[in-house]
Amino acid sequence: MSIKIRKQDALNFHMQGQPGKIEVVPTKSLSTQLDLALAYSPGVAVPCLEIAANKEDVYKYTAKGNLVAVISNGTAVLGLGNIGPEASKPVMEGKGVLFKKFAGIDVFDIEIDEEDPDSFIKIVKSLEPTFGGINLEDIKAPECFKIETELREKMNIPVMHDDQHGTAIISAAALLNALEIVGKKMEDISIVVNGAGAAAVSCTKLYIALGAKKENIIMCDSKGVLNTSRTNLDDIKKQFVTTKKIDSLQEAMKGADVFVGLSVADAITPDDLNAMAKDPIVFALANPDPEINYELAMKTRHDIIMATGRSDHPNQVNNVLGFPYIFRGALDVRATEINEAMKLAAVHALATLAKEPVPDMVVKAYGADQIRFGRDYLIPKPLDTRLITTVSPAVAKAAMDSGIAKNAITDWGAYYNDLQKRIGIDQKLISRVIDRAKKQPKRVVFTEATHPKILKAAQILKDEGIAHPILLGNKTEIQRLIEEHKLDLNDCPVYYPREEEEMVKRYAAEFYKKRQRKGLNYTDCERLMRERNYFAAMMVEHGDADALVSGLTKDYPKTILPSLQIIGTAEGVNRVAGMYIMFTKRGTFFFADTTVNVDPNAQQLAEIIELTAHGVKFFDMEPRVAMLSYSNFGSSKGEVPEKAREAVRLAKLKNPDLVVEGDMQANVALNTGLQQETFPFSALANEGANTLIFPNLASGNIAYKLLMEIGGAETIGPILLGMKKPVHVLQLGSSIREIVNMAAIAVVDAQLHEQNKHL
C-alpha cells in the first residue's frame, strides 16, 4: 500500500510553533503508518526543504527553539576541582532535570574532553545549528572568561556561563533586599569579596552595575588582598585592585558592611564578624561548608543578615532561581544573547517577588508556619511556581527593549498562561474569570478574616483590582494580623457581628420575618446574627455586600446552612449542588455533585445535570455531559444505572438541546474511540464528555480526590450551584490562591446577578 504525503500535512506534523507565538509542544503520535511516514521518510523531506530555503524556519519546524545544551569540560566541577568530563556528567544531567522541571526546557548535556580554550570554543560554536541556547557549566577560571566572551561574540544564540552569572544574579537580588531591610544604600556600602574566581568576578561586576562603588570593594584571593603591591596578577584580577593599604582579609573585614564569600570553608572567624559594621550582611556561599558556620555566625552577631548556599539554612543562594527562567525568557523571544539588561531584569524580578505574599503551597512545602519578607527571607524559595511567570517575562521584555529579540511578545496575558503550561499548570479558564472580575469588581464579604490566609488573599484581591474585600471578625485581632503580616488592608471595611448592635438588630428583624414560622423566635434570630456566617449571608441578602466567601475553617454543611435559610435557592431550583473544576493533562473537566447531595434520586440528578450545565456555561464552555454509572446504556441492571438513565431522560425533556448521555462508565465517557467503535449512537462519540455527573456523593467525592492525589490534577472548587445570590464555599484548608480564585468566581457571579436583575 502506498501512502501519499501532502506538503501541508508534513509541515503541520513537524511544526513546533509560529513566530511570535509561544506554544507548548505535544509529543507526536506514531500510532499509524501515516504518522511514521510524516515523521521520517518521505514526509520529513518537506520541512527539510523549507529550512534549506530559509534557515530561520528551523525554529518553526523543529524543537531547536526549546533546546539548550549544558556543556562542560569537567575542569571545575562543584567544589571537587578538575575531575574530568566523564565525572562531570552527573552534574550536567542534573542540570538538565532542573531545566525541564522548572521551565519546561529540553536539554542535551555534552561533556567535552578538551581543556584548550580555543579548541573548546571551536567545538561549541559548531553546535549552533542544533541548539537554541548554550549553558556553560563547571569550567575553570580564567579560561571560562575567554570561552564565554568569545562564544557570545561568535554565536547568534543565548550563551551563559551559569557558574559566573547565576550566583551573581541570585546574590544581587538578596543583597538589594538585605540593604533595604537594614536601611543602607548600595552606593554607600563597603564590600569584601573573598574569592577571585568566575563567580566572584561576576558578582562584583553585577554589584557595581547596581550602584556599588568600585573604590568601596576589596577583593581577596588565596594569597590575600588584591592591592597595588601584588605582582603577576592576571588581567581579570587587575580590574579589582584596591589602592587601600590593606593586605589581609582580616584587615579588610574591619568596618565592612557586606561580606561575600566564594572561597573555602572557615575562611572567617567570629572576631572577623565582630569587626564588621552594624547590621552586617554576610553571604557565605562556599559549598558544602560556608566560610563560617551558620549557627556560629548567628550566635556571634544578633544583628547579622546571613545567606549561604545550603538548603538547610534561610536565604539559600541557589542558581535554580535564575538559569531556568532566564533561558526560558531568552528562548521565547529568540534573543541573540543574554546581555546585562536581561541579567539586571532577573535581579529586580527576584527581589520584588520576595516581597509579595508567599503562596500557601510554598509555605507547606518548606514545613513552615509562615514565610514573609525579612531577614530570614530575602529571595524566593526554589519551589515557588511564580518564578517562571515573574522572572521569564522580565527577561524577555528586557531582551525586547534592548533590541536583541527576534520575536516580540505582544499578548503578555497569553504568555503568562503559556508559561504556566510549561510547568503543568493550565490556568486559562480562571485567568478569563479574573479578567472579567477586574472589569467590574464587587464587594466580597469574608467571614473568616481572623485567618492569615484570608487576609493575604484579600491583599491580592485588592492589589490586583479583582474585588473589594469586606472583613468579618474581631477588629483587634484582624488589625494585629494585618500589622504582623505587613499587609495594607486598613481601608477595607471590618465588621465584628458581636459589636455591630444596629446592624444585628436590623438583620435579626429581617431574619425573623423569614423564619418565624419555621421554629425561630426573635431572640434566636438576634443570637444567630452575631455569628459571622449568618451576619454575612444577611449582608448579601440586604445588599450591604455583593457576594459571600466562607468555609476555610468550617464543615461544608455548617457553612451553607445560614445562606440557605437567609438567601435561599434561585427561582425554579429545589436544591443546590457542588461542582469541581479539574485541570488535568487531558484538559479541563467539571465534576458534580461532589459536596452536597448524598444519594440523589433520578429527579434530583436531573436537576443537578441542569445546574451543572449552567455552571459550565458560566465559564464560557459548552457542557458535554455524561451521567456516570457502572453500566453502559442499559448493559447492567440495578438502582444506580436505572436512576442514571431516568435522570438523562428527564434532563433531555427539560432541555432538548443539551448534550447529555448515560448511563455510561467513566472510561467510555472520555474515550471517543471506544464510543465510535461500540456506541456510535452516543452524542459524546465525537468529542467526549467534559462534564461528569456522579450518581451519589460518595463516588463523586472519591473520584475528584483520587484524581488530585494520584492523577496530579489541580482544582477549583467546590463551586456552589443554584443559590439565589452569590455564595461560594471554600474547601477546608484552601490555599491563598484557591481563595483568590473562588473570590474572583464570586465577583463574576455577582456581575451576572446584577445584569439579570436589570433585564
From TrEMBL:
<feature type="domain" description="Malic enzyme N-terminal">
    <location>
        <begin position="19"/>
        <end position="152"/>
    </location>
</feature>
<protein>
    <submittedName>
        <fullName>NADP-dependent malic enzyme</fullName>
    </submittedName>
</protein>
<dbReference type="InterPro" id="IPR019793">
    <property type="entry name" value="Peroxidases_heam-ligand_BS"/>
</dbReference>
<dbReference type="InterPro" id="IPR051674">
    <property type="entry name" value="Malate_Decarboxylase"/>
</dbReference>
<dbReference type="InterPro" id="IPR042112">
    <property type="entry name" value="P_AcTrfase_dom2"/>
</dbReference>
<comment type="similarity">
    <text>In the N-terminal section; belongs to the malic enzymes family.</text>
</comment>
<keyword id="KW-0479">Metal-binding</keyword>
<dbReference type="InterPro" id="IPR012301">
    <property type="entry name" value="Malic_N_dom"/>
</dbReference>
<dbReference type="InterPro" id="IPR045213">
    <property type="entry name" value="Malic_NAD-bd_bact_type"/>
</dbReference>
<dbReference type="InterPro" id="IPR046346">
    <property type="entry name" value="Aminoacid_DH-like_N_sf"/>
</dbReference>
<dbReference type="InterPro" id="IPR012188">
    <property type="entry name" value="ME_PTA"/>
</dbReference>
<comment type="similarity">
    <text>In the C-terminal section; belongs to the phosphate acetyltransferase and butyryltransferase family.</text>
</comment>
<dbReference type="Pfam" id="PF03949">
    <property type="entry name" value="Malic_M"/>
</dbReference>
<dbReference type="InterPro" id="IPR015884">
    <property type="entry name" value="Malic_enzyme_CS"/>
</dbReference>
<dbReference type="InterPro" id="IPR012302">
    <property type="entry name" value="Malic_NAD-bd"/>
</dbReference>
<keyword id="KW-0511">Multifunctional enzyme</keyword>
<dbReference type="InterPro" id="IPR036291">
    <property type="entry name" value="NAD(P)-bd_dom_sf"/>
</dbReference>
<keyword id="KW-0560">Oxidoreductase</keyword>
<dbReference type="InterPro" id="IPR037062">
    <property type="entry name" value="Malic_N_dom_sf"/>
</dbReference>
<dbReference type="InterPro" id="IPR002505">
    <property type="entry name" value="PTA_PTB"/>
</dbReference>
<dbReference type="InterPro" id="IPR042113">
    <property type="entry name" value="P_AcTrfase_dom1"/>
</dbReference>
<dbReference type="Pfam" id="PF01515">
    <property type="entry name" value="PTA_PTB"/>
</dbReference>
<feature type="domain" description="Malic enzyme NAD-binding">
    <location>
        <begin position="164"/>
        <end position="400"/>
    </location>
</feature>
<dbReference type="Pfam" id="PF00390">
    <property type="entry name" value="malic"/>
</dbReference>
